[in-house]
Amino acid sequence: MNVLSIQSHVAYGHVGNASAVFPMQRLGVEVWAVHTVQFSNHTGYGAWRGRVFDGPAIEELVEGIAERGVLPACDGVLSGYMGSADIGTAILRAVARVRAANPAALYCCDPVIGDVGRGVFVRPGIPEFMRDHAVPAADLITPNQFELDYLSGIETRTLADAKAAVAAVQASGPKVVLVTSLHTAETPDDSIDMLAGEGGLFWRLRTPRLSLAVNGAGDATAALFLVHYARTRSAGEALGTAAASIFGLLRRTAEAGAREILTVAAQEEFVAPSRTFPVEAV
């Protein structure tokens, strides 16, 4: 399996491609990583160094990959944080090139816009680009609850609201939606839910809520979900496997009191999760 992953990258720590690439590789996937930014560390530290690339730089790298004649062997494209609409346009052009070479290829878009408690944290114009262009072009999307609400225009207070919001987003294009960090009226205070929807069916998975604040877990979640869905073609199965791995990764990180997720130290969680959780049809 080959995946073209177009995301941000940091030299220190694990966000963007620095969070998504290794888990996929650990699962035996060949990853072609194209970086949209190259920073010393993620911006959550308040200070960083490095630079942001532009759309033409992304397209140049994709053109170089295409010149190797390998796009027909590309099974999927993964994207996350988009620093500008011009980068987003370059990503969608890359998706179109891959699909032209391999119509069976999947596009998984993690529509990074904001989060509960933080609001929108991307540049102006990006939320609209995600809603109007990136999400409709995707086969799979992995929004958190805040992003689901924005994309659907529905405030998700209950499970029924969340299911309606997923259906509304699916009507715009993506066949499969994975909602991360979901907390509704039915979710116990000490737990957190994930919800997957495909073909009018829905599956919920509930894990204990961990006490930690780290960056990059969403990037790893999208990567794992894409790989497992591509292999099983089942949103429910992909949810169960990806969620187990992410919980193990975050549990190890919380136990260590680490500031960065333990992508390398906890790598066995990607191939053999230490704990699994029931996937419930809802």
TrEMBL record:
GO terms for biological process: pyridoxal 5'-phosphate salvage. The keyword Nucleotide-binding applies. Keywords: ATP-binding, Kinase, Nucleotide-binding, Transferase. InterPro entries: PM/HMP-P_kinase-1, PyrdxlKinase, Ribokinase-like. It holds the Pfam family Phos_pyr_kin. Its EC number is 2.7.1.35. Residues 90-258 form the Pyridoxamine kinase/Phosphomethylpyrimidine kinase domain. GO terms for cellular component: cytosol. It comes from the Bacteria. GO terms for molecular function: ATP binding; pyridoxal kinase activity. This is pyridoxal kinase. It comes from Methylobacterium variabile.
